[in-house]
Amino acid sequence: MLIAYTVAVELIGSLPGVIEAVVRHDRSLGEQLRRAASSVLLNVAEGERRVGRDRTHLFRIAAGSCAEVRAALDVASAWRYVPEDSLRRSRELLDRELGLLWGLTHRRAA
After folding, report:
1. CATH match of 3-105 with 1.20.120.1810
2. Would you say 18 and 34 are in contact if contact means Cβ atoms under 8 Å apart?
């Protein structure tokens, strides 16, 4: 199992309280945040079973979904739906996930 998979699970685990708070103010944003976080994990899982360009493509999609999660957190913070300090763990996990995905999409041939 890839570490990126485990970190994506941790990311999802860091979000329920955040999503709950966001949904109280903006149901659509909360649902989009939930879908984007799920997309990270689902694409990592699928990419782990693929080979070649298909594999890299799925990891890039997962990275794009990470960017979408980050943007949703930025929106929630900017609108003050959630305090910034409550987003710290999720942001740390996003940074780690993006680093892992960068490594998976920029491998050099041996």
Report:
1. no
2. no
Phi (first) and psi of residue 49, to 5 degrees: -95, -5
How many CB atoms are located within 10 Å of the residue 109 CB? 3
Are 73 and 18 spatial neighbours (Cβ–Cβ below 8 Å)? yes
Q: How far apart are CA 12 and CA 9, in angstroms?
A: 5
DSSP letter (8 states) at residue 15: -
Token pair of 90, please?
């999720």
Longest dimension (CA), the chain: 51
CA–CA separation, 64 and 73 (whole Å): 14
pLDDT in tens, 15-74: 999 999 999 999 999 999 999 999 999 999 999 999 889 999 999 999 999 999 999 999
